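INTERNAL TRANSFER SHEET
From: sequence group
To: structure group
Subject: Kinesin-like protein

Please process the attached sequence and return the structure record in the designated field. Keep the field labels unchanged so the import script can parse them.
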Amino acid sequence: MHRVRPLSEKEIKAGDDMVVQFPGNGQVLVDAIPGGPGGGQKPRLFSYNVVFEPAATQEDVLQFSGMKRLIEMAVEGFRCTCFCYGQTGSGKTHTLTGPPGLFGIKAVPYSDNHGLVFRSFVYLFQLLQEHTSRTFVLKASFLEIYNEKVIDLLNPGTCRKPLAVRWSKKARGFFVENLFTVDCEELDDLMAVLEEGMRNRSVGRHNMNDYSSRSHTILSVHITSEEPSENGVFISRFGKINFVDLAGSEMTKKTQSEGKTLEEANNINKSLMVLGYCIASLSDPKRKGSHIPYRDSKLTKLLADSLAGNGVTLMIACISPARSNIFETINTLRYAARAKKIRTKPVVLMDPREALIISLKREVASLQSENEYLRSALNVYSSSSSGDASERIIAQTPPHVDLEELAKLEGPQLAELVRLYMKENEALRKDNGDLFLSRDLLQRDHEIVCRENERLLKKLEEVNSVCCRSPLIPARPAFSADILSGDQESSSTNIWTNPIPDTDNKTAVNSSKQIPESVQKELDKRQIGARNTANLKGIRKPSSNDDKIHAPKIAQVKNTNAKDKRYIQKM
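Return from structure group:
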């Protein structure tokens, strides 16, 4: 947006006239530059979102600049910035804070001349009072960048010691180390921060402005809010709004600066030049992805997130309508036109854990809606399938007609017969399509089941092999080879053996056909060879009581052995 100030008394006395016109619809028309390109015969037209004419009041700027929307977004957790740009004496500080006399020793509680910052604070607390379900914590800081040094305006000290600007890996941005912040519970606390910072700000005087800002200032308000969700979890949001008053660009020939004032002007112009280069790089599509020199200036370091980060930025370009300042006016208009092309992707700043919770909630809601959609689609498919079935039941099969009867049929009867056959043909085609679809679904399910069975069998074999190799598995009772061979007269033993298979007895079962690997493993586990029989010499002979005790086990083994034999014979 643009704001054009009225002609000053000095400009009126010097005989300056206005070179700026307002056609409407956010347009600014500037007279031609004498001796400029094209002979200076063609005026220049610029288009912007909002243009404030010299008669606009401070309240008009708040209502129609979009500042209210910016504050609302900051309350919701966005990072927002409002900064004023223009040449020295163009009305930047007046737009943001108001005339200098408002913050002197005799501060004025409220005036129509109060600027955008004061009115934004009032609107901010009105919003906070409306959100009764949330808990808010406000903190404010105020700094200036003077001769490329960051000074804390709330705690400047006697020597005005500069603060360091460092990079935060966690926040992915620059911050000022040891910057003093003030907790603000009431509107008066924020106003006290504004007044204290304005009293400590570096100002000067030169030929073009009696109250010239000699530094860039950044007033930041951090808004932390907590709101309970449906399941009782508190969701925190971290909003922020910056008010940036840039020092005016100066032409030393006009300001007649010298000494300390000249050094200040050089540093101001240097930082503004870097800011302009960053804006030009961000607004040029051909330079997308190229290096942006944020580190070349303290100002661009602290405004990096505002220019191309995840925040929202409002730029107010202040211009002078005097003919003597036409070159600076056109440069400011070009500057703002480039900044208008910059696009950012604003996001809400939240705690990572809470952001994950909200993301999961959104995913659950999306899956629930998708589930409902699939359920409704399934119901429609089922109803349509049942409707087709009813139609197939109701549809009548055309009567069988031989060739002789067909030759005797007249035209209407023949047409009716053809219609019936065509109807049956369509019904059969539809049934055929449904059957093909069902077949494909069954084949897919069959393949899935087969793959699952193969996976389970493979897993079972791996478990069996591990169990057989492990020496830590307790031994299980083994029975004599006579019982396994089916001899009913043989007595059982109560001998415990190691289940590790004997490498010499891998071919204990002979068969003309190849036995499956799983069956072979089971037989190897159950078979007791000659090596195990030789170990029975030192064991007592079985008694009749042993036969009675082990009779159930013997019967069970016989049944198992018979099943194994039948299984091998089948294979």
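Handover comment: The chain has 18 helices and 16 strands. The first helix runs from residue 9 to 13.
Transfer complete.
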